[in-house]
Amino acid sequence: MNQPADFRLETRDQGQTTVLTGDWTAVHMGTANERLGEALKGTCGIFIDANGIGRCDTSGAYGILRAVELAAEPGKISARQEIVRLLDLVAHASTAPRTPVLKRRPLYDLFERAGRAIASVGMDVYQLNVFNGQLLVALGRAIRRPAKVRWAAVFSLAERAGLDAIPIVATTTFFIGAVVGLLGANILSKFGAQVFVVDLIGIAVLREFNVLITAVLLAGRSASAFAAEIGAMKMNQEIDAMQVLGVDPFDALVFPRFLALLLSIPLLTFVATLAGLAGGMVVSWTVLDLGPTVFLERMIDNVGVTHFWVGLSKAPVLAVVIAAIGCRQGMEVGGDVESLGRRVTAAVVQAIFATILIDAIFALIYMQLDI
Hints:
alpha/beta, elongated, Transcription Regulator spoIIAA, 2 domains
């Protein structure tokens, strides 16, 4: 039963004695430590009998020690072994030097954070190259021994990353094509060149928006899923168990996801192309009164299929990068949920950034090649 902390003064054979009773805890101590300090203030050699204490925590121990310090000549403290250890621990902690307060240096801290961010980006690029090297080794093993590839996992992941993403990809690119058509109709109508809206829609959709929108959606959809799935396995030590059993995580987890995304992106790019052209054709028909026949004829005659192959050529590279970033971030997950959240977020951000950067590089290359 809990009892409030208290004390009494007695005269024993060893002299004046202060007997502590009750529970010397933060909840039940009350003002007992202050009253004890007043009773011991200025005294010499009073014996402290703490054997009658029920429970004692760090607050109670600190209160006893502060009260004893008020005595002119502190006496001996007698207590159970566990309370003696607690008193020694609190006494050592109370005499330890305080943690120094660091002076804030705003400009220095700014440059330090910038430097750490640059170093972190460089380390991420290095680790991504290492991961890509391991992925190439796994690809070489798969080419040499195709029977060892987990085709069931590949097709299952391709269905989730490819077929299940068709509705969102088609809807998004349909409206992208419609927006391009509306902008083109609004601007070109001022110059009496409405018919060139078809060329604008065809080039924009076939060359850029079909593969770019597909890759961005997969970066947010599949890269995050890959990072979360592999990261959860890493947290549950399933990957460590696979390594103990002699199973290479790259062969079992990374390579099937890479191959699934490699198979899915060209299909989704084709679907995005049809949906984007359909959106542009609907706008041309309703706003400019250019029927589907005129739209398709001008598309075939003036735009051609070259722009479609230019856009499709980016798909394998984007697939490799998105799969590599998602899987690598999953492999870097630690043992806590906070690490999983950071890595999933990093997978999405890095995949989208890499997608836009690679698309810009391809645009510059094709511009120099005049394609």
